[in-house]
Write a structure and sequence with these properties.
about 140 residues, Periplasmic heavy metal sensor, about 85% helix
Length: about 140
């Protein structure tokens, strides 16, 4: 094969690889934004949004079905939140034991980041338990 052909092949290979890398980066950014949007807001709302998203993806829901399922999730949000509050002390104790065990696995450098992660997660859990069970308070998207 001549030198000119090798150069063409090399350029095409580089363009192909650059396109693949760009596609991977863009796909990751899009997925991260979609997940962040799905999980943003109070945990109760995020949980309901995740359920609705999964059902819509797996079952190919119609617009009317999505609206009805959104209403069902909203109607039961308060009831489920109340049940979660009754078991919250047991869950909190179990979570704290779990966090302590997990923390022991990490080195000193990793523990600060882990502690921040746990604080954020605990803040979200506390917000979920304290959140108003009013279905209109946080719409399900």
């Amino acid at each position: 094969m001549s030198r000119a052909r090798w150069q063409v092949v090399l350029v095409l290979a580089l363009v192909f690889l650059a396109g693949g890398a760009t596609g991977a980066v863009v796909s990751r950014a899009v997925v991260q934004r979609a997940v962040a949007r799905l999980l943003s807001g109070p945990p109760e709302q995020a949980r309901a949004s995740a359920i609705l998203f999964r059902l819509d993806r797996d079952l190919d829901l119609t617009r009317e079905q999505r609206a009805e399922l959104r209403a069902v999730l909203a109607r039961h949000r308060g009831e489920l939140a109340a049940i979660r509050r009754t078991v919250a002390p047991q869950l909190e104790a179990a979570r704290r034991r779990q966090w302590a065990e997990m923390r022991e696995v990490l080195d000193e450098r990793q523990r600060a980041g882990f502690d921040r992660f746990v604080e954020e997660l605990e803040r979200r859990v506390a917000g979920s338990l304290a959140a108003s069970p009013d279905p209109a308070a946080a719409p399900i998207e």
